[in-house]
Amino acid sequence: MSIPFILFFVFALVAVGGAIMLIVAREPIHSALSLVLVMVALAALYLLLGAEFISAVQVIVYAGAVMVLFVFVIMLLNAGIEERTNYSQMAKYAGLPLAILLLFSLAHWMAHSAIGATVANGAGAPNQAAVSTRELSSMLFQKYLFPFEATSILILIAILGALVLAKRPE
Amino acid sequence: MSVVPISYYLVLSAVLFGLGVVAFVFKRNIITIFMSIELMLNAVNLAFVAFARAHNQLDGLVFVFFVIVVAAAEAAVGLAIVITIAQNRRSLNVEKVDLLKF
Question: What is the number of alpha carbons within 13 Å of residue A46 lying toward its C-beta?
């Protein structure tokens, strides 16, 4: 058991535990905080994978901006305990096994598919984290320049849409 | 130094995505349903980063960057819609939003 393995299992457990907390929690604010836990654990896993820029963006944008927005809306709307509705019997007896089946078949496919196996064997590459961010930025502003600019227009549209939607009706 | 195999990350990604689907189906609060969508996007991001690492190519990381930006835009618009629904319906329960239900 080397240190990367131990770190991986610790953060994987934190992420899965946070995701389960999200499902189990009755208060939306508890769900939001457990989702922050998942995102921070994922940021640590990105660091473990040598993607330090993505890790920083994950913490700043996801765990910071997006989740603050969520918590703000929860506070604004004063969202209390989730109302429990009468689930249909089908959801109880068919939905849960199907969800577990989906989960396990996804995990099985990803672990045993051809791409997963070949990738797993060739994955012992040394860490190149020192140059990763520089190469990432040059790729972002050369090869992916057009998608990058298109994304800025998307953000502009999103701002306008949010403003129009959230405007109090006269 | 041994490195964690990529398949471990892929299995974790699949598990997180499955939990996101479960939360999406089971939760009744519209904000929590939004959060489960974010959870699924995060799971897919983890798979992207793992594959980028495995192939030693940075394109996957660029895509993660775009996914994060689109998720942020989606959260802004989506939460504005949530606020509008909450003002009109006086409830956050998705079963109360049934005007289009047959």
Answer: 28
Euclidean distance between CA atoms A103 and A111, whole angstroms: 12
pLDDT tens for residues A50-73?
A: 888 899 999 999 888 999 999 999
Looking at CATH, the fold of the domain delimited by A1-80 is given as Four Helix Bundle (Hemerythrin (Met), subunit A) (1.20.120)
B57 touches chain A (CB under 8 A): no
From B53's Cα to the closest Cα of chain A, the distance in A is 7
Nearest Cα to A29, choosing from A84, A83, A58, A67? A67
Spatial neighbors of A12 by CB under 8 A, at least 6 apart, are: A41, A45, B8, B12
**B19 vs A65: CB contact, 8 Å cut-off?**
no
Q: B14 and A16 in contact (C-beta within 8 Å)?
A: no
How close, in Å, is residue A84 to chain B by CA atoms? 8
A23–chain B Cβ distance below 8 A for any pair: yes
A162/B27 touch (CB, cutoff 8 Å), yes or no: no
Domain B28-92 has CATH 1.10.287.3510: yes
* Domain ranges across chain A: 1-80, 132-170
- Sign, CA dihedral B102-A95-B46-A68, equals positive
Rounded to a whole number of angstroms, the CA Rg of chain A reads: 21
Query: pTM of the prediction?
Result: 0.85
In this prediction, does ipTM exceed 0.85? yes
A positions 63-92 inside 8 Å of B (CB): 65-66, 69-70, 73-74, 76-77, 79, 82-85, 91
